[in-house]
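Exam review. A common question shows you a sequence with its structure tokens and asks you to describe the fold in words. Practice with the pair below. Do the first one on your own.
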Amino acid sequence: MPDIEFLYRDADVVAVNKPSGLAVHRGWSDDDEFAMTLVRDALGHWVYPVHRLDRGASGVLLFALSKESARALCERFERREVKKHYLALVRGAPPDELVIDHPLKPDNSEEPQPAITDVRRLAQLGRYAWVEAKPHTGRLHQIRRHLKHISCPIIGDVKYGKGEHNRLFRERYALHRLALHASRLELAGLDIHAPLPPELASALAQLSQLEQERRTSPQ
């Protein structure tokens, strides 16, 4: 059973640091274990999912503790009153800062829906970059699709990424997951942070070390 790290709890909500590879609830996966049931069993209290976090991603995941709180939180998400911050390791060299305004088609429709993501490059590490992404809309796989749209796919993304780079990170850096982490969530005075998982931190440290050696080595 995966360990669930609790980040915050009050009378209305609970926030956990979801590990990569764990689906939020049964409707999104055929797995045997889900974040919702693990949190419910750990608390001994029913919980209600209020937003989506990809199975392959890790980071801040929020649950409501009552139907009333769930309804209120869902309305806040719909009004875009919740600020979400993600960290991602990508292939390529994105600009220092950019706004990706690119509509996305949902799976059940041919009509594209507005989708906007702010992206900021935090570090360029050779052929790869460490970026922060802040979505303004909540489309399915929005960050993954937007980063692919600018030719900077996320490492470990088997649907939108590049197999050769995914294999390199599995073999060289022991990174067997989607390199996307929901690092921070801001909501109604709350500011919840999720620490970077060890496997992502290790790959990032190794890339940073290689880049430092490259910059300081004699040409």
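Now try the second one, then compare your answer with the model answer below.
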Amino acid sequence: MLKFIKVDRNAALIIVLAGILGFILANFVPGLASGASQLHHYAELSLALFFFVIGLELKHELTSGVFVKKSSLLVPTLAAIFGAFIPAGFYYLVTMNDPVASAGWAIPMATDVTFAVAVFSIFGSKLPNGSKQFLLAFAIIDDLLAILVIALFLHSDVTIALLVTGSAVLGLLVPSKNVQRLQDLIQPWVSLIVLPVYAFTSLCFVLNVSILEVATSLVFVAVLLRVVGKSIGITLGAHLGSLVAPSSVKITDVFRISVLGGIGFTVAFFVNDIVFSGNETFHIEAIVGSLSAAIISVCLAAFTLKDRK
């Protein structure tokens, strides 16, 4: 079972199935959504393990992975920065006239590492060496950026801010010799329990507005634009970085990989929970927008990655 969970595509499948199950049950079992909302608070707290693993992953990459050579940090770092803030900027431009809706600007920032790597493992076999490492690098860095934004700029309570930043920093402080052992110990629990339960409770809501209403809302459109914003930002950032520190990944391949940046899930939902906790309509619109962006990104990635000669 542990070997099954360690495969990215299997872990992603479990999370997807848990989310789908939560949504279906919520809309067919009266009262379930209310009960799940109580459980969701504890699911949020359990994300401390998820953020701890992000810290461990970054520590691993810094000490024995793609960031050992510090000059290799520049390209994925700029890709992550532009890839995080351009979709955030798009979001703000669309919603700027609504002060409540515009508070969700950080929702489209982060790439979901688990899903992005899972899709890459299915469709990215034709890409050259270094492509997966580039994907991991910018995805981990933009997760870190999202963590900093949550702590510094969003109106989250002290507990949430400490949960997010404290867990990630704790992972970074683990001695190098213990990182791999802790990852092997904790990652299966995160993949099998923490993230599926969070997905189940996040999507366990009653859709009490029409799909047309959601699809034409400012929040939905603003979140959906992450598909375009991520591709532009990641490609532009990587290109600027490569002017100073040449990269082994060609810019055309960077563009193909950048499409995966449109897949947002755990961190996007977490930010949504913080900024729209008091607005059910915006909360639902942001969830549907994130899911729609992820589906579109997977379809685009299937085409762009497989299309490489």
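Model answer, second protein: Residues 135 and 257 are 7 Å apart (CA to CA). Residues 1-5 have pLDDT under 50 and may be disordered. Full marks require stating both points clearly.
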